TrEMBL record:
InterPro entries (alphabetical): PorV (IPR045741)
Protein's recorded name: Type IX secretion system protein PorV domain-containing protein
Signal peptide: 1-18
Keywords: Signal
Domain (Type IX secretion system protein PorV): residue spans on this chain: 25-184
Keyword Signal found: yes
């Protein structure tokens, strides 16, 4: 339990200064991974138990029985932005496991027209270059069973790399900590504390490239942003229960609370923290075919007439698993019920026991 108390202490210390930091930083690390999880509106922190646990709750890695590989791809903003994910995990022994994952969120082939017009005022299309803005998150995960039956913990070490062409780049580092508990009645509980030490990003700017931007439009120069940013801690708590009917059918439900230590437009919002609930369901048949649905991202939005309305983000997904290979699909924000990102998401998971 000392590990649990340590997490709470760190969260308390760093949230005390939450209002002095940016509300949104490294948001690409909060989108989520795995179409199976996204189909349940990301309500999986208690139930996750595979290679994707490195992202959702590293404590779940201890449930691995063999090596696993996961891949995912999705596109946003009419295929302008690409979101890709790859992960590998393996058990180290009967009580511990290790994982590594990489996330890339990027907009590629952006036109750089800062040198389109030369010093004589001539337009020269040969002077147009292409650049990319890309965010990378590399995560190393470790998980271990605790002496108490059904209790396990996990930790993540994250390296963040963000690049905006040759204009600016940054390095960042942060830690996550998590626990899971499962009893004999198929009840599961999970806690995931992200960025418990705050994730610090340090930016550097290319003076020559920045000068091109500032000189491109006369009178439109802007000051450079701060060279450092801090991602404040976030907390995800979940509880799930699995029901089995007539041996062939199963239904697993999970309810999560996502907590940010800041005030925003979440459905529950205070000066200390904002809370956003999520609910997900997974229906399975012979542990081969899965149908998933969920609802989350409840937001209070102000309309043009100054009235307020509550929006939400529903999701739907299907999955197929056969002999260690699982293919999943998810569609988020059905019916465009919110202003959040929506996408078609595909993912693949391979269990290496297939090759035995």
């Amino acid at each position: 339990m000392k590990f649990f108390y340590c997490i709470l202490s760190l969260l308390f210390c760093f949230t005390a200064n939450a209002q002095a930091t940016r509300k949104y930083s490294n948001e690409f690390m909060n989108i989520g991974v795995d179409a199976a999880a996204l189909g349940m509106s990301n309500a999986v922190v208690a139930k996750t138990n595979d290679v994707n646990s490195g992202y959702w709750n590293p404590a779940g890695l201890t449930k691995l029985e063999d090596k696993q590989l996961a891949l995912m791809h999705s596109s946003y903003f009419a295929n302008i932005a690409n979101y890709d994910y790859a992960a590998f995990a393996m058990p180290l022994d009967n009580d511990s496991a290790f994982g590594i994952s990489l996330i890339r969120f990027a907009v590629d082939d952006i036109l750089d027209t800062t040198e389109l017009i030369d010093d004589q005022g001539n337009v020269n299309y040969d002077r147009i270059n292409l650049f990319s803005t890309a965010d990378y998150g590399l995560t190393f995960s470790y998980a271990r069973n605790l002496p108490i039956e059904g209790l396990r913990y996990g930790v993540n070490a994250k390296v963040i790399r963000r690049i905006i062409g040759d204009f600016a780049s940054s390095w960042g580092f942060g830690l996550d900590a998590a626990i899971q508990f499962e009893n004999d009645n198929n009840w599961k509980f999970g806690v995931m504390a992200r960025d418990i030490t705050t994730t610090f990003n340090s930016w550097s700017f290319n003076d020559e490239a920045i000068a091109r931007i500032q000189d491109a439009i006369e009178g439109q120069n802007q000051e450079l942003p701060e060279t450092s940013e801090i991602t404040i801690p976030k907390l995800q708590l979940g509880v799930s229960k699995k029901y089995v009917f007539r041996y062939d059918y199963s239904l697993e439900a999970e309810f999560d609370l996502n907590v940010r230590f800041e005030q925003n437009n979440d459905i529950i919002s205070t000066s200390f923290a904002s809370i956003n609930p999520a609910l997900g369901f997974e229906f399975g048949y012979i542990d081969m075919i899965f149908l998933r649905t969920g609802v989350g991202n409840f937001q209070t939005e102000r309309q043009l007439d100054n009235s307020e309305t509550t929006t939400f983000q529903p999701s739907l997904g299907v999955g197929f698993k056969y002999k260690g290979i699982e293919v999943d699909y998810a569609f988020t924000d059905i019916g465009d019920q919110s202003i959040a990102l929506y996408s078609n998401v595909f993912s693949l998971k391979v269990d290496f026991s297939l090759f035995r």
